[in-house]
Amino acid sequence: MPALGADMEQGTLVEWLVKPGDQIHKGDIIAVVDTDKSAIEVESFHTGTVEALITPVGETVPVGTVLATITETEAEPARPGAAEAGRPGAVEAGRPGAVEAGVPAAMGAPAAAAAGPAAMGAGPAAVEAGRPAAAGAPKGKRAPGKRAPGRARPGRTPAPAGPAAPVHSTPLVRHEAGQLGVDLAAVHGTGRGGTITRADVEYAAASRRVRATPLARRLAAELGVDLGTVTGTGTGGAVREADVRRAAAAGAPAAQQPPAQPPAAAAAAGQAPHAGEAGRPATAGRAGTAGRAESMRQAIARLMARSKREIPHYYVTNTVDMGTAMSWLRERNRRLEVSQRLVPAALLLRATALAARQVPELNGYWGEDHFVPGPAVHLGVAISLRGGGLITPAIHHADDLAPGELMAKLRDLVNRARAGRLRSSEMTDATITVTNLGDQGVESVTGVIYPPQVALVGFGKIVERPWAVNGLLGIRPVVVTTLAADHRATDGYTGGRFLTAIAQLLQRPEEL
Amino acid sequence: MTPEQARQMIKDILREIAPDCDPDTLPGDADLRDSLELDSLDFLNFVEELAQRSGRRIDEDDYPKLATLASGAAFLAGS
Question: Which candidate, A123, A165, A206, A392, has a CA 20 to 30 Å from the CA of A419?
């Protein structure tokens, strides 16, 4: 289960679009996953053959859970992993999300391409350790993300991949497995030649989840019931809704206890999103619009609170004369069919993308303690959804798109965002985000940065104002541009350069 | 096209673009973009559909005439 955005913690598998034996290519859409925000089409990070679908349809699983195993095509001329070194996925191991137990923003999975048999969506293994859902798992704390993320992992069922017979492992690993009560025969080794590593054992221990129906899981989280203590009466001992209710009724005192990890471990995790998770009811997988709106609100709340807690924002503002740009737009649109016309937002996005290319210090991510430049300009666009909430998918390589192409992409993106059909790469790749509240009639917006990005650009409404040009006063359309930027990554001077670049670009619309 | 047909066409399109709204309850002189919270892209979709279904060319200069149900219907019904 890839993290489709820094604020995602779990997802529900809605639909498989492939079956075992299918040949797939990197970028193919292989599944649909429902998140707090939207249904997302998950693209494959690999080229190869689908070996097994591990997560069943309807199941809600934490980020990092194996969804399926894919055998990579041996004869790939250019190894996808190598090609991807420059992509966000590859650098994301160093992104804050990756090392935070609670929010593994690192999709991890692209990096997985570097390792042999790849597991879709495998993220930092430790993610599951501290989760309420992983009740009963030993709380072995190890730094999440330390381990190369995204190698093939054992599923909850005995791993279908890998050599069956002799199990390779070291004495130390066997010892650890014994202590944790892990059966090595059921563990899929990710070391050299299929050797089982210590991390594999820890992962297996952590992911040895209680079998439960999604409804039961959700109910357990809401009622504060530890699934590990519930006797299941469903198929194969799976815990059902009724079992959870029975346990909750029986063990009222226990229900007062948050089902999560010991306080010490929570403190060790140190990351607030995670620590705050203990008593919070599970949110994903709720059916219906009301539930979606509520869980989206919570997802936004977590991410924005994290942003304001961690990111020292600074702000710069500029008012830009849009006279030339608006006249140019008007003249251009006059000759065109409705479907070809540009809205001013397309010019603003285009100028932003080019400015991000000119001032690359603002285009990228904040890693653990340093700035990581984005591999390209992937422009995140804040799109408000009908019924409330907000989603910020990315337009890939926005700086390479002419205004007309950008406009087409924007329309497509907005339509698909509202219809709930976004793709996984669109949810994860943004390197800088734009919010355009002009349509709501406000003159300026001072935004909150989307971690781990380092800049958010805001545009207000284009309004007519008295404006001095060459010593004369006239009426001009103007727009207030703002930049909220991460002071750890850049200083106000850089922010100023960026806004100045946008203003200058907008004075020459024909060159955009 | 009669004003009534034009009105119906506008409502049909609005229902598709903003499924959570009921144009039937909308006063004829209410500003469509404000009351239905249409952004510029929604409005472009609206104009595009309108142009397609009515077979009429709609220029940017005509946009103000599409501001309300009443004015929009009058515009489409006019020759």
Answer: A123
In the listed set A207, A222, A252, which residue is the last one of a domain according to the structure? A207
* Domain match, A203 and A230 both: no
**Domain spans, chain B:** 3-77
- In tens, the pLDDT along A153-182 reads 333 333 344 333 445 666 666 766 666 666
Structure tokens at A374: 């984005």
Interchain contact, B41 vs A345, CB within 8 Å:
yes
Task: Specify the DSSP class assigned to residue A74.
Answer: T
Average confidence (pLDDT) over A226-234: 72
Same domain, A184 and A76: yes
Tokens of A343: 């809205």
CB pairs under 8 A between A and B: 36
Say what the ipTM of the complex is.
Answer: 0.77
Are residues A143 and A56 in contact, defined by beta-carbon separation less than 8 angstroms?
no
| pLDDT interval class at A114 (50, 70, 90) | very low
Task: Tell whether pTM > 0.90.
Answer: no
Q: Chain B contacts of A338, Cβ < 8 Å?
A: 44, 47-48, 51, 58
Residues B69, B32: Cα–Cα separation, whole Å:
7
Q: Hey, are the CB atoms on B48 and A414 less than 8 Å from each other?
A: no
